[in-house]
Structures are given as structure tokens and as C-alpha cells.
């Protein structure tokens, strides 16, 4: 059985995917979730807190997809597995990705909401850096050593940015795009 907090988050995901943060109302989320507005305030102190909760959900789910990558695999397999898992998440969670994209736009253009977005992104950056430490250094075919942190920063930024652009244009992320990223990001690696 889905608990009330999850019902609220699911309804908010749907509403925030359709409308901007500023257009969406807690009344709509209440109506869609079947949870009273006063109960929403029990779980979330404000609409901003609810949006931050959704963004955290995006990040936590994405982190779950990559955290079990085996760091002892050869680096080409490791990078391919990271790309596979990130793309699978994006393909499975299009609605959450739309929310994330809208939130980024809405929050970055309004000072009063920017701080909430930055706090959530800081959590993601800590995870990304820690995961980069776990996967270790990447060595290119020319012998250049790239730290795991730097590599994960470039890789996740590239994937998220590409997928956001595709989403803005109404395009579906397909298997061939995932394979394209694997080809690009493994072509320069030493076996």
C-alpha cells in the first residue's frame, strides 16, 4: 500500500511535470493525490519543500541506479555500466526528469527558490564525488590520468545535459543514444 507521503510525491510529480513550480498549486496536488491539503503540510512545510523533496527523489533514484557498479571491473566495462544505468533511469523516469528540468529553470530564475535547489544539488555533488572516488582513476589511451571525480562530473553533466536538450525538443531517449554515449566515453580509455 502506498503511504500518504508517496501519494503526495506522485501527484506532485505529475502536476509539476505539466506546469511550472509557480503555476502549480497545493490544491491541485491535494485533489490529484486524494490527500487533504492540511495533511500535505504535515509532510512538507511548503510547496518549495515539496518540490525539493521531488528533486531529492530524482537524485536518490539516479544514485541507486549507479551505486552498485563493480569498481573492480575493467574501466571500459565500468564506464559502460555507469552509462547503461544512468540512461536506463532517465528512460524509465521521464516524468521525474521533466520535473527536474522545470525546477532547474524555475529555481535558477527566482532568487527565493534558488537556495533550496542549491542545497539539493550539493547533496548530488557529494554523492557524485564519492562515487568518483569509488570507481577510481580513469587512464586514457594516451596515458592521461583522470580522477574519478572529474570523470563522473563530465560524464553526468554530459548525459543529463544531452537528455534535457532532447526532452525540451520532445524527443524520446532511445537505446541508440545510450550506445552513442558508451562509444564516445569508452573510445579514449586504455583497456
TrEMBL record:
UniProt keyword DNA-binding present: yes
Keyword terms: DNA-binding
Gene Ontology MF term list: DNA binding
Residue ranges occupied by any HTH tetR-type domain in the UniProt entry: 2-62
InterPro entries reported in the protein's UniProt record: Homeodomain-like_sf (IPR009057), HTH-type_Tx_Regulator (IPR050624), HTH_TetR (IPR001647)
DNA-binding region: 25-44
Phosphoprotein keyword on record: no
Protein name stated in the entry: Fatty acid metabolism regulator protein
Gene name of this polypeptide: fadR
Amino acid at each position: 500500500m502506498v503511504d500518504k507521503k508517496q501519494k503526495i510525491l506522485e501527484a506532485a510529480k505529475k502536476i509539476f511535470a505539466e506546469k511550472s513550480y509557480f503555476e502549480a498549486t497545493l490544491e491541485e496536488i491535494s485533489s490529484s493525490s486524494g490527500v487533504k491539503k492540511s495533511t500535505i503540510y504535515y509532510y512538507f512545510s511548503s510547496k518549495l519543500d515539496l518540490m525539493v523533496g521531488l528533486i531529492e527523489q530524482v537524485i536518490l533514484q539516479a544514485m541507486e541506479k549507479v551505486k552498485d557498479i563493480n569498481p573492480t571491473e575493467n574501466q571500459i566495462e565500468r564506464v559502460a555500466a555507469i552509462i547503461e544505468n544512468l540512461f536506463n533511469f532517465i528512460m524509465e523516469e521521464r516524468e521525474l526528469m521533466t520535473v527536474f528540468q522545470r525546477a532547474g529553470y524555475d529555481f535558477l530564475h527566482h532568487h527565493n527558490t534558488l537556495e533550496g535547489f542549491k542545497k539539493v544539488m550539493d547533496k548530488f555533488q557529494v554523492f557524485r564525488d564519492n562515487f568518483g572516488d569509488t570507481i577510481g582513476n580513469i587512464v586514457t589511451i594516451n596515458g592521461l590520468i583522470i580522477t574519478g571525480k572529474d570523470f563522473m562530473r563530465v560524464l553526468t553533466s554530459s548525459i543529463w545535459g544531452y537528455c534535457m536538450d532532447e526532452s525540451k525538443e520532445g524527443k524520446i531517449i532511445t537505446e541508440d543514444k545510450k550506445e552513442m554515449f558508451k562509444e564516445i566515453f569508452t573510445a579514449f580509455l586504455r583497456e
